[in-house]
Amino acid sequence: MVQTEAFIMLSAVLFILGAMGVLLRRNAILLFMSVELMLNASNLALVAFARHWNQMDGHLFVFFVIAVAAAEVAVGLALIVAIFRTKQSINIDELHQMEG
Amino acid sequence: MTTEVLLFIIVGGIAVAAAVMMLLSENAVHSALFLVINFACVAFLYIMLDAPFLAMIQIAVYAGAIMVLFLFVIMLLGAEKLQAPTRQFRWLAPLALALAGGFLLVTGLAITSGQISLTGPVTRAPMLRVVHAAPFAGTVDVYANGQPFAMGVSFGQATTFTSVPAGDYTVELRPEGSSTAALTTTITLPGDNSRAANTFTAIAYGGDASTAPQINLITDNQETVPARTTRITLFNAYTEAVNLVDFGSEGDPSDDRVVVNALQPGTLVELPPVSEDTSVQSWAFTPAAGGAAIFRMNNEEIYSVERETAQLLLLASESTFDDTVRPVALPLVTDAVSSFGGPHAIGELLFTRFMLPFQLIAVLLLAAMIGAIVLTHKEDFRPRRRDVRRRVMKPLAQAISDQVGQDVLRPDAEAPRLPEKQPEPAGD
């Protein structure tokens, strides 16, 4: 049996990769995909701990996270489409309007 | 290195590599496809972690629905490649790398030197129930370590499974309402570190008008049974050893079949899985010493095979009106416990303890649906030209017409002009 530690470590690595994607990429869609990667990494940690503690609650949380992610993607992509329609760009560096 | 560890390393490596490629690829479509690979790898890891249902959801919802939505939007906007990135925050990249390195370092330290032992799963609290099969005890109250466990249990009844901490318990049977114990015995409930159900049944059986009954602790096998079968476990709480015989068709000795041979009093045997269309009406108990059947299970209402259950069949003594005993088979049917991480178990939790969050998530999804529609709905805010004319109120237009002497509401009307100014009347 693979130790829980290994899964938590893998989850941390995936989370960091997702966070770096959010910080470094400028494409709004890629940003969203990086957020999905981070959510996925946290899901992996939840499932690993669910097995570790013999409790199914972690699985339920993963279920809810997936549902929230679906809602977030629906609204987020709708926002991106709306922004693209007005600005003709989804480069987030070109989107800031409220700088002083 | 076991196969499982090897698989973990391979699949985890692919997942990390796919995530890195997602970050590095310039084409957004390639990034999305790399993310699909990553999601598939994580689904595989879910299966390794005993979460088959979540693995299924991961593939269907994440890798399927969500990523298709991403690809659709990328294609719709034609945003595969961003034109010449305008780097405005040059200091962000090294900072992000430093932060990532720091986070990884801290997480690694926390995991490797943390106080939580992650190397072995924790034990699971056992579940206990008490079965009353003692013919002369009457209705009893059950106490465990002096605390009430179940009140008013009569012959043939079983309490529900109750989760109790592992350890030693002094179980007392007291006649109902009494404070003196008719029977005291000590049982030990071990913890268990497997993910299977960890259930125990304390059976009080035997005894007669003068001697107290005895308590036997048995381990129940409540695990998932194969589909369309039931698990029958037989416990002999009678006074003598018995055989369980399937007599087949009536009056035909050739198709008799011995299911269990010489089951000693106080012992337990688990039958092979019984399929749901098996009829147990032809089953009967015979003395192991030989002789005619002492009990026939020919009551259809009591003895039947229900699918996906774990059935404990007790052959007990029942007291009759003249204080003699006769054998009776007591079926205790419980649903087999859903397997860890399976759809059954998730559904059970979802519709009991997690009902409110489930409803909230449903409302959230509905709100997201409406939000997506509102955001992408193309609304034309520019007022149309025809409306401008219409919007002038009729009485006002009438008043203007009276002033300028021509109809202003006709589309081909000339621009209204005010009448020539009348010369002021000469003053005094």
What does this structure look like?
The complex is a heterodimer of chains A (100) and B (428). Chain A is mostly helical and 100 residues long. Chain A has a single domain, classed as Orthogonal Bundle (Helix Hairpins). Helix content of chain A is 78%, strand content 0%. Chain A has helices spanning 4-24, 28-53, 57-87. In chain A, helix 1 packs antiparallel against helix 2. The longest helix of chain A has 31 residues, at 57-87. Chain A is elongated, with a radius of gyration of 17 Å. Chain A starts with a helix and ends in a 13-residue tail after the last helix. The model of chain A has no long low-confidence stretch (mean pLDDT 88). By secondary structure, chain B is of the alpha+beta class. Chain B is elongated. Chain B is built from 8 helices and 17 strands. Chain B folds into 4 domains: 1-81, Four Helix Bundle (Hemerythrin (Met), subunit A), CATH 1.20.120; 123-220, Immunoglobulin-like, CATH 2.60.40; 223-337, Sandwich (Immunoglobulin-like), CATH 2.60.40; 343-375. The model of chain B has no long low-confidence stretch (mean pLDDT 81). In chain B, strand 14 and strand 15 (295-296) form a beta hairpin. The N and C termini of chain B lie far apart (122 Å). At the A-B interface, helix 1, helix 2 and helix 3 of A face helix 1, helix 2, helix 3, helix 4 and helix 5 of B.
Shape designation of chain B: elongated
CATH architecture descriptor of the largest domain in chain B: Sandwich
The amount of beta strand of chain B, in percent, is: 15-25%
Top-tier CATH class of chain A: Mainly Alpha
